[in-house]
Write a structure and sequence with these properties.
By secondary structure, the protein is mostly helical. Helix content is 62%, strand content 0%. Helix 2 runs antiparallel to helix 7 and helix 4 runs antiparallel to helix 5.
Amino acid sequence: MIGFGRGRALMAKLCHAEAIVSAAHPQPGTMGSETGLNSQPEKTEIGMPAANAPNEPKEHRTAGSTGSSALDLLQQDHREVEAYFKQYEEQGSDKEALALKICLALEVHARIEEEIFYPAARDVIQNRELVTQAMVEHASAKQLIADIESMEAGDELHEAKVKVLAEQIRHHVEEEETELFPEIGEAGLDLEALGQRLAKRKTELFEQLAAGEDVE
């Protein structure tokens, strides 16, 4: 995953390590509601009950489950990044800090999808091309993220690259939530157990970044 070599410096720019680690730990019954960076975006979709999130199926859990599912967690990540992009567009916003938050949130999100979610999805869905396409879209976004992380907010192309990244992510999210996620939801996968694995790995990544460690 690109960008993690610079993660320590980027994280130091954003916030104190203790606050990030605290935000990375989900509370019982609210997995994914605040598992990102420590700053709380404006209250749009962030923290909404999963059933009220746009494009989200009403039920993601296997029979008898009580926790939050993999799809709930990933969609909450989507809502969080959407809120960061919306803040970035506001007049007077701290564009450099928000761009770094966007990049780190996307890097961690892509990492847990590629390590855990996509392999599990590929094993159970009929249309495996959806996973392949998602991986290609990740690769394109990673290049933009690398460019943005290497720039300052005042650089000529900084804002343009963030806006292009926003468009790419909106397209990627729409395809995942309307095509890939519904197929996974019907495939009989244990989404609660998968969600626990995703949440654990996400916490590990934020903890390592907050501690100033290289993330491999």
